[in-house]
Design a protein that fits this description.
By secondary structure, this protein is of the alpha+beta class. Helices cover 39% and strands 23% of the residues. The longest helix has 65 residues, at 154-218. The relative contact order is 0.07.
Length: 358
């Protein structure tokens, strides 16, 4: 490391809170210096160790403090009253002298001068409560190489550095795996919430169609439903599976068809009768029998045309949703009010029906 003294820090990375990698430019070459707080080493490396996808937040602060600084010293130190050895790199910066420490605890520290020694100006995550920025740094003494322990050979240095880099590589892979698992779990949770929201919207959309259909059934009868009623029973005239045909209407239709057929050619008359029979077969209506004669005689006041009384009574008996007729001269609004029937022409019926699908 002392061979790099005088070099300039070009870049800095924090693979973790315990490891820093500095790219230092010296004459005619660029070198990488690695500091490991757990191993208390500072050494030159051949390559930068793999780091987690997201660097510690404090990396930007340390970069701002040291990038562009000049390396002024490199050595080892130990507390005055005994303790673990730490590696120290000294720098000259625009803000004054700074020292990067690896070994005083599990995290890196950056020191600055103070009135009675040095103070901590930056600490990586996990440094501990007594090593926060602003706290005083312990008093130490420099250790000469070879003091207390044998000086490691270059081969031993390289093996120690490789072991440190391998450990950091494994820690970086594990950190990336944990981060990836965390992101995947968060994404799965978001997808589950999205799916639940979509299913809820789909259920509400289906319910909305049913609610609209019920509302459309209520609209024609809203004047008859008491205010504040919790429920109301109304005929579902959208259910076209129920078809009703009064015998009195059937006989009148058949009589008019035969009269009309007399005006046609034999082929057209036969075709007209066949079409009518096919219509009755396909629709298969429920037949409403003729009303009682006495009831017909006593109900003449309901409609002014006596021939229409059986038709009107058949309609009252079958309780249809609509009574369709072109005879609005006799089947008037007054008749509808007295019998509670909904009377309309076929055109009026189809206009009301088409309005539901707009």
């Amino acid at each position: 490391m002392r061979a790099l003294i005088g070099g300039t820090v070009q870049k800095l990375w924090l693979p973790s809170a315990a490891v820093a990698v500095l790219q230092i430019r010296v004459p005619r070459r660029t070198a990488l210096a690695v500091l490991d707080a757990r191993l208390a080493i500072a050494a030159v490396a051949d390559e930068r160790p793999t780091s987690a996808d997201s660097a510690p937040r404090s990396q930007a602060t340390l970069r701002a403090a040291l990038e562009g600084a000049r390396l002024s010293s490199a050595g080892l130190e130990r507390p005055l009253h005994g303790g673990q050895i730490a590696a120290r790199l000294g720098f000259e910066t625009l803000a004054g002298p700074r020292a990067l420490i690896a070994g005083d605890g599990p995290a890196l520290l950056l020191l600055g001068p103070a009135e009675n020694g040095e103070r901590i100006v930056w600490a990586a995550a996990g440094a501990g409560a007594d090593r926060r920025p602003g706290a005083a740094y312990r008093q130490v003494r420099e250790i000469e190489l070879g003091e207390s322990t044998p000086t490691p050979t270059p081969t031993e240095d390289a093996a120690l550095l490789r072991a440190a880099l391998a450990a950091e590589e494994a820690a970086g892979v594990a950190a990336r795996r944990r981060e990836l698992e965390k992101r995947l779990r968060a994404r799965v949770q978001r997808m589950r919430r999205t799916l639940a929201a979509v299913e809820g919207d789909a259920a509400r959309a289906a319910q909305a169609r049913d609610d609209r259909r019920r509302a459309e059934l209520l609209v024609p009868h809203q004047s008859r439903i008491p205010r504040g009623a919790r429920e109301a029973r109304v005929p579902d005239w959208l259910d076209l599976d129920e078809r009703v045909l009064a015998e009195v209407v059937r006989d009148e239709v058949e009589e008019n068809l035969l009269l009309h057929a007399e005006c046609l050619s034999s082929h057209d008359a036969d075709q007209l009768i066949e079409d009518y029979r096919r219509l009755i077969k396909l629709t298969n209506p429920e037949l409403v029998p003729y009303p009682d004669k006495d009831l017909v005689l006593s109900s003449g006041h309901l409609i002014r045309h006596a021939a229409d009384v059986p038709v009107l009574l058949s309609a009252v008996a079958s309780k249809p949703d609509w009574l369709l007729t072109h005879n609005t001269k006799h089947f008037t609004k007054a008749v509808a009010q007295h019998t509670s029937l909904r009377i309309a022409t076929p055109a009026e019926f189809f206009r009301a029906l088409s309005a539901l699908f707009r």
